[in-house]
Amino acid sequence: MDLNGKVILVVGGAAGIGGATVALCAARGATVVAADLDEAQGRQTAAQAGASFIQVDVTDEASVQALARQVEQEHGRVDVLIQTAGILLGAYTPIEELSAETFEKVWRVNVTGTFLCLKYTTPLLKRSSKAVVLLFSSPAANLPSSSYAYGASKGGVQAFGIAAAQKLGEAGIRVNLIAPGGIDTGMKRSVIAEDARRRGTDYDKAIASSNLGAPEGVAKVLAWLASDDADYVRGLVATR
User: Is the Cα torsion angle 128, 153, 69, 163 positive or negative in sign?
Assistant: First the structure.
């Protein structure tokens, strides 16, 4: 697949799936901008990949607007937006004990953050001849989740993405939703750790039995979806 000449913005690009995607897309010839709240890790990931880095807080509208403005100044357009930024809080917390603050924080990062990223990059995507948007859903959008807040938020992202696919499709922008399965990220490991703690089981054994996939595997799917080779793909794409 050819990513040469494409300007790809990876939000949540410091580590995990986002970090692996930054590295792979840059290796395949794209001009990659990694954006993340974690400045230290984000700069390190970007430097290793030959990408640039911009710090962003996806819950802060002014911060997302500034991100889009900087990308416009430096590149003039966005060909691909890959929005991987997300959090999971409240794993295995009974609803009676789940605070509204926790629920709202997860929703603000995962759903409002996705909305803001798409809102402010859409004018830049419209300057591309074959723009692509890749948003992150989860099996938790349709199946029971360890967290009420996370499951609800991913259902929200999925519904938002379906609406965006129809509406932005009219402007020639392809929108896909990606639902990764069990992937070896810090977020997934924290959920496994909490489950092991509450069960009183060994964390290392729990990790070993989880058969987690590598973030690089999902990055390969994302890089393909970002390419013109995936031009006929529509809707939700599930990975292991």
Answer: positive
Residue 197 domain flag: no
In a domain, 79, yes or no: yes
C-alpha distances in Å from residue 120, one per residue of 58, 102, 176, 178, 183: 11, 26, 18, 21, 29
Q: Which of 92, 120, 148, 150 is catalytic?
A: 150
Q: Which residues contact 4 (CB under 8 A, 6 or more apart)?
A: 28, 29, 30
Place of tokens 């949540």: 12
Write the CATH number for 172. 3.40.50.720
pTM value is 0.96
- Residues 32, 55: contact at Cβ < 8 Å? no
What does the pLDDT look like over 165-208, one tens digit per residue? 999 999 999 999 999 989 999 999 999 988 889 889 999 888 98
Neighbours of 219 (CB within 10 A): 24
d(CA 161, CA 172): 15
150 catalytic residue (yes or no): yes
Is 191 inside any structural domain?
no
DSSP string, 161-174: HHHHHHHHHTTT-E
In a domain, 210, yes or no: no
